[in-house]
Amino acid sequence: MNLLLDTNVVVWMLSNPRRLNAAVRQALEKRSNQLYVSAASVLEMTSKASSGRLVFNERMRSVLMETCTSVPVLADHALLVQMLPLIHRDPFDRVIVAQAMIEDLTLVTGDHLLAEYGAPVILT
Description:
Layout lengths: L1 E4 L1 H9 L6 H8 L4 E5 H12 L7 H10 L1 E3 L3 H9 L7 H13 L2 E4 L11 E3 L1
Parallel strand pairs: 1-2, 1-4, 2-3, 4-5
């Protein structure tokens, strides 16, 4: 399965995996699953780290880059964001939903609102 990790899942995976339920931890550890992280999530984490609201250190960066394949934000993703209903107002989350839809990825998130968009979702 191809799993796109929401920002909150990435943060928990890197800093406190016990916050993820057992089924999500198993999905992340399963060798046949490919893990993806959006460039939007990386931007969100680095922005929060720059302002002191999140710890995102070199070890975490290294683990993230070794574990996940990066998904760039493309024009197609940005254009779909405009067409999505305003179920969720966070622009980072809306980009991630658009990426999951266009790239045929299953979104792994703790945000139950994102499941309402209709993309395949695994909730934490």
